[in-house]
């Protein structure tokens, strides 16, 4: 036995601590590095207040839907229905306004309530019927896509969209700040407060951290998980509404791609400042990185295919950083 | 006896050259120095005991041998050659096998497949030759006492049989060292005896066994030599001759042990808090009835598998009974879930504190707060957590229970077992439930912390709580409890109190029924 020589990799505590710090701050460093590089390469177009506002404005929709997804993943579940749901919400809100002539606020409230209902259904299937959340939400999402095509007969609702509805997303009602950004700040602020500063938030974190222990400590685990899905569903509805307003139309599968962006943001976020734990502020940083990345690609006129490559790569990097953080925290 | 062939009884010096020599091992995790200076020799064919309080460094030393952690300083020699155990595969290749408290096996596989997990298998034409493997494994399985057929599914096998499968795997691998971590923690007395026979047989055939346990009687009975760790250092090495329990305990604690003070019993109230009538959940709990009084510590003794934890889960609403009824403070009590039970005034300290008690990645403060969230918020319109109230609650509880932590924000997973247990108990202090159920409150907890936990349980009862303590250690209950119910095969077979309450009476009652094989 003694003749076996092993040249193992050995990390000193200093190296490990250093790696831990690297994992925690890598995303933020990456963000600043990206901004710096783009600024140097394109000093006229990139580092301007106008462009930064534009990036944040564009990113707001992804940040809202990703913020909701953050709640679902904190309670330990995945919600794959959000992109499909947001597409459906976009169609329904336009339909309610254009076809049913409902006042815009009423249509918005109805659609957000519908989002909550979809979350409730997801949560019910996962907690009471005990279907794995990946399967449950994928199934629900696919059904929603069916509904979207049925409702719109496959044709985008374009004609008759009132200017007032467009202003929901395009307007700057508060101190000249784009509405999307205001909504995003309010939503993420509320979510952050909920998770980090309320007793309900402690229960949410406990359920995600150890559901068995949370249950025996007297927490109603199913209720908390359902809540996670409901919040996720409501945020998907908001994103769907704002996207329809921005596009000026309700289009089936318009918001589908937000699913990937939201997951990438959430996982990048879990590697930010904490060791692989999901949190709202992290999701914000994650979404910002993705937004600046796309913005840079656009400014430099990168071909379309590179955007897909960027999107896929960032998702893998995000999950990789997240699990690196977790394994360092455990060792 | 093997000890005479390996250790000279006159001098206590080894007569064979050691298999493994570890010298001056040190290891830190973050800021915590888990190992400061540990040295240990393992001789071929000896049963070497390893004891020490929780947090003394036993687990860390084992993880280093297993290649799961790497030492910051010190050296490890195997057969006289300095080596570096890089990872688990390297440890296996060097002839070391590790069997842990939490055994893992693949439920869908057969006994044989589980034995061969991770072991290189012979193949014929590229296909694994299971019949050849079975021929080779069968005699080894028989030797370690596996009675289940090799092609049977492992589903439904007991913890004891699981241990045997793991030992069998170690032998198939031709391991020269088998490390066993708390092997008897969840075995019955007769299963433990069987295991000891197998360990002695292994030792005779030249396999070294490193035996880690809190159960000192087993250590004294089984081991040729015993190493004692304290506070990250190897402080003593004893050979069996002349070793006594008292000596071991003194070495573990590091100072003269106080005489155990018999707790003063307050005048017990006759007020019934929890009344359980004919409650059942077949086949594990059969028609159990008892009354729990205010200010009382009621013990539930019996063997592992007697249905005690299952009874606690029924009372706590984690499972639903299929018969019987309960009242809590005179009112009908039928909890639909643990959260309903907690609202009604119950608390539970579960058996598996890591899996069921704590969110390991979260702070001490977070974990203490889990049962008290309503009391930690302030603000009229938006109920926000008050950091001040949280900090006050945490500081008070940490002080009251003498929880050893670097601070309230330290992740609870970094605490030692005893301190983790105090956190789970501490969660309920402020909530002051009418009934507190503690399932194996001192399992895997060192002697010092155990005494503190016992004192705390008595205090809680004196303050008017009704306390139910489940324990598999008959030694634990007589001093701690006012009354003890002994369960066997799902039923309460004996109630012991006053002069009748003793360790021996509990043990006797636990076995009486199983001997007859018929539950009362």
UniProtKB/TrEMBL annotation, chain A:
Transmembrane segments: 21-43, 55-75, 82-98, 104-126, 133-153, 173-195, 226-245, 257-273, 280-302, 308-329
Subcellular localization(s) per the UniProt record: Cell membrane
Keywords from the UniProt entry: Cell inner membrane, Cell membrane, Membrane, Transmembrane, Transmembrane helix, Transport
Iron is among the record's keywords: no
Molecular function terms from GO: transmembrane transporter activity
Keyword Cell membrane appears in the UniProt entry: yes
Top-level taxon of origin: Bacteria
Assembly notes: The complex is composed of two ATP-binding proteins (LsrA), two transmembrane proteins (LsrC and LsrD) and a solute-binding protein (LsrB).
Record function comment: Part of the ABC transporter complex LsrABCD involved in autoinducer 2 (AI-2) import. Probably responsible for the translocation of the substrate across the membrane.
A Pfam family this chain is assigned to: BPD_transp_2
Protein name per UniProt: Autoinducer 2 import system permease protein LsrD
InterPro entries attached to this UniProt entry: ABC_transp_permease
Organism in which the protein naturally occurs: Devosia psychrophila
Its membrane topology: Multi-pass membrane protein
GO CC annotation: plasma membrane
TrEMBL record, chain B:
Pfam families: ABC_tran (PF00005)
Domain of life, per lineage: Bacteria
Keywords: ATP-binding, Cell membrane, Membrane, Nucleotide-binding, Repeat, Sugar transport, Translocase, Transport
InterPro entries, per database record: AAA+_ATPase, ABC_carbohydrate_import_ATPase, ABC_transporter-like_ATP-bd, ABC_transporter-like_CS, P-loop_NTPase
Domain ABC transporter, first and last residues per copy: 20-256, 268-514
Transport listed as a keyword: yes
Signal peptide from the UniProt entry: none
GO molecular-function term, one example from the UniProt record: ATP hydrolysis activity
SMART domains associated with the record: AAA
Family classification: Belongs to the ABC transporter superfamily.
PANTHER family: CARBOHYDRATE TRANSPORT ATP-BINDING PROTEIN MG119-RELATED, D-ALLOSE IMPORT ATP-BINDING PROTEIN ALSA-RELATED
Protein name from the UniProt record: Ribose transport system ATP-binding protein
């Amino acid at each position: 036995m003694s003749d076996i020589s092993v040249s193992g990799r050995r990390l000193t505590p200093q190296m490990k601590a250093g790696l831990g710090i690297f994992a925690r701050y890598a995303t933020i460093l990456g963000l600043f590095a990206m901004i710096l590089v783009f600024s140097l390469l394109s000093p006229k177009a990139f580092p301007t207040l106008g462009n930064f506002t534009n990036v944040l404005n564009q990113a707001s929709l992804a940040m809202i839907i990703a913020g909701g997804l953050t709640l679902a993943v904190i309670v330990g579940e995945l919600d794959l229905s959000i992109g499909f749901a947001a597409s459906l919400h976009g169609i329904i809100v336009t339909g309610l306004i254009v076809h049913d002539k409902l006042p815009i606020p009423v249509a918005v409230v109805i659609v957000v309530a519908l989002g909550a209902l979809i979350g409730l259904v997801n949560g019910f299937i996962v907690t009471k019927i005990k279907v794995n959340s990946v399967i449950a939400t994928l199934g629900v999402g696919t059904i929603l896509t069916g509904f979207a095509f049925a409702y719109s007969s496959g044709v985008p609702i374009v004609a008759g969209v009132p200017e007032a509805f467009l202003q929901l997303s395009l307007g700057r009602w508060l101190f000249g700040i784009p509405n999307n950004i205001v909504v995003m700040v309010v939503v993420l602020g509320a979510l952050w407060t909920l998770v980090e500063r309320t007793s309900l938030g402690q229960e949410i974190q406990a359920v995600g951290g150890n559901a068995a222990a949370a249950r025996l400590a007297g927490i109603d685990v199913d209720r908390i998980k359902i809540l996670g899905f409901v919040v996720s569903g409501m945020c998907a509805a908001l994103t769907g509404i704002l996207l329809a307003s921005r596009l000026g139309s309700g289009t089936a599968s318009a918001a589908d791609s937000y699913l990937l962006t939201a997951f990438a943001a959430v996982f990048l976020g879990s590697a930010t400042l904490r060791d692989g734990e999901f949190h709202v502020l992290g999701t914000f940083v994650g979404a910002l990185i993705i937004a600046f990345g796309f913005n840079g690609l656009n400014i430099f006129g990168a071909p379309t295919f590179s955007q897909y490559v960027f999107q896929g790569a960032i998702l893998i990097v995000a999950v990789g950083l997240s699990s690196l953080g977790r394994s360092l925290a455990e060792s | 006896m093997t000890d005479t062939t390996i250790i000279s009884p006159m001098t206590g010096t080894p007569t064979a050259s050691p298999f493994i020599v570890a010298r001056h091992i040190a290891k830190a995790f973050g800021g915590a120095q888990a190992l400061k200076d540990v040295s240990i020799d393992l001789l071929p064919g000896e049963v070497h005991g390893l004891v020490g309080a929780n947090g003394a460094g036993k687990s860390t030393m084992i993880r280093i041998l297993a290649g799961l952690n790497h030492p910051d300083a010190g050296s490890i020699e195997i057969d006289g050659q300095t080596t570096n155990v890089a990872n688990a595969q390297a440890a296996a290749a060097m002839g070391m096998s590790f069997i842990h408290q939490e055994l893992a096996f693949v439920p869908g596989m057969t006994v044989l497949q589980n034995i061969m997990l991770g072991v290189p298998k012979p193949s014929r034409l590229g296909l694994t030759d299971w019949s050849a493997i079975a021929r080779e494994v069968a005699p080894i399985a028989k030797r370690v006492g596996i009675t289940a057929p090799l092609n049977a599914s492992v589903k439904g096998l007991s913890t004891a049989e699981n241990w045997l499968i793991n030992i069998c795997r170690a032998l198939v691998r031709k391991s020269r060292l088998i490390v066993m971590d708390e092997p008897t923690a969840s075995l019955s007395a007769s299963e433990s005896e069987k295991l000891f026979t197998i360990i002695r047989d292994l030792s005779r055939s030249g396999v070294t066994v490193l035996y880690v346990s809190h159960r000192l009687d087993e250590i004294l009975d089984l081991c040729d030599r015993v190493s004692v760790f304290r506070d990250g250092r190897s402080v003593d090495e004893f050979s069996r001759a002349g070793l006594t329990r008292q000596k071991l305990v003194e070495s573990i604690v590091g100072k003269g042990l106080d005489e155990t003070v018999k707790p003063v019993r307050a005048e017990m109230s006759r007020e019934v808090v929890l009344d359980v009538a004919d409650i059942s959940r077949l086949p594990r709990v059969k028609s159990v009835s008892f009354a729990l009084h205010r200010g009382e510590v009621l013990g539930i003794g019996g063997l592992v598998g007697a249905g005690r934890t299952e009874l606690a889960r029924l009372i706590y609403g984690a499972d639903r009974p299929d018969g019987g009824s309960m009242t809590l403070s005179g009112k009908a009590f039928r909890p639909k879930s643990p959260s309903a039970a907690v609202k009604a005034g119950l608390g539970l300290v579960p058996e598996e504190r890591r899996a069921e008690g704590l969110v390991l990645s979260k702070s001490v403060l977070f974990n203490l707060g889990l049962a008290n969230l309503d009391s930690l918020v302030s603000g009229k319109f938006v109920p926000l957590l008050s950091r001040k109230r949280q900090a006050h609650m945490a500081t008070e509880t940490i002080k009251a229970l003498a929880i050893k932590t670097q601070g309230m924000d330290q992740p609870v997973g970094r605490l030692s077992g005893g301190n983790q247990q105090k956190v789970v108990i501490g969660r309920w202090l402020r909530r002051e439930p009418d009934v507190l159920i503690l399932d194996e409150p001192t399992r895997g907890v060192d002697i010092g912390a155990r005494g503190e936990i016992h004192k705390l349980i008595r205090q809680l009862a004196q303050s008017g709580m009704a306390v139910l303590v489940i324990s598999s250690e008959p030694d634990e209950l007589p001093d701690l409890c006012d009354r003890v119910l002994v369960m066997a095969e799902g039923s309460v077979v004996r109630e012991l109190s006053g002069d009748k309450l003793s360790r021996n009476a509990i043990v006797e009652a636990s076995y009486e029924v199983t001997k007859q094989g018929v539950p009362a």
